[in-house]
Amino acid sequence: MVRKILKFKYKYFLKPFFFKFDPEFVHDLITIVGQLTAVVPGGTFLLSKVLRYSHPALKQTIHGIKFNNPVGLSAGFDKDGKLPGVLPSVGFGFTQVGTVTYKSYKGNPKPRLYVGSNFSLNSMGLPNMGVSYYCRIASSLTKYGKPLIA
After folding, report:
1. Three-state DSSP state, 147
2. 20 to 30 A Cα–Cα from 122, which one of 7, 22, 26, 79?
3. Strand 94-95 relative to strand 65-67: parallel, antiparallel, unpaired?
4. Dihedral sign (CA 133, 35, 25, 11)
5. Distance CA 109, CA 131 (A)
6. Strand 120-122 versus strand 94-95 pairing type
7. Rounded to an integer, what distance in angstroms lies between the CA atom of residue 128 and that of residue 64?
C-alpha cells in the first residue's frame, strides 16, 4: 500500500515539480537531502523501510563479494561518493563513484544536463574532486572493519 501511495505521489506531484527546475539543481538538491538523511538518527532506517525492496532471490555472491541486490547505481549520480550510507537504504546493491581525474576539475560550463520527455543528455565534462579526495574518503569508509570502497 505504501509503495502505491509513493508511486502516485511521485507520478503526479514530485516528477512534475522537479521537472520545472534545472536538472543539475535537482540532482544537487537530492544529494544534499541524502546527506542529511544519513546524519539524522534513524534517517536511513526510515528510508529503507519506505523505499528498499529486499528478497532472498536477489542475493548473489560474485567473486567472493556478497550483494543483497544485483541492481547497482552506475557512475554519474554519486560522482563524489557523498552517499555511500544512503544508497543501500534506497535499495541499490552496489554503487560506483564517478570518473576521477588526477586533479579536481569543474567540468563543462552550465547548463550541462538536459532532460526531455524521452531522453536525457549529460554534458557534465567529468567534474570531480580529484584523486586525493577519493583516496581520503575511501580510506575512511568502512563497515565491520571492511572497506566499502575498494
Report:
1. strand
2. 7
3. unpaired
4. positive
5. 22
6. unpaired
7. 30
Residues 48-104: tens digit of each pLDDT? 988 888 899 999 998 888 888 889 988 788 888 888 889 989 989 888 877 889 999
The candidate with the shortest Cα–Cα distance to 51, out of 85, 82, 92, 96, is 92
And the C-alpha cell for 83?
552517499
Q: Cell numbers of 122, please?
A: 549529460
Among the listed residues 51, 85, 50, 53, the one whose alpha carbon sits nearest the alpha carbon of residue 68: 53
Contact by Cβ (8 Å): 66, 123: no
Question: Would you give the DSSP letter of residue 109?
Answer: P
113 with 122: CB under 8 angstroms? yes
Cβ burial of 141 (10 Å; 0-12, 13-18, 19+) is middle
What are the backbone angles phi and psi of residue 143, rounded to the nearest 5°? Answer: -140, 120
Pairwise CA distance, residues 103 & 131, whole Å: 6
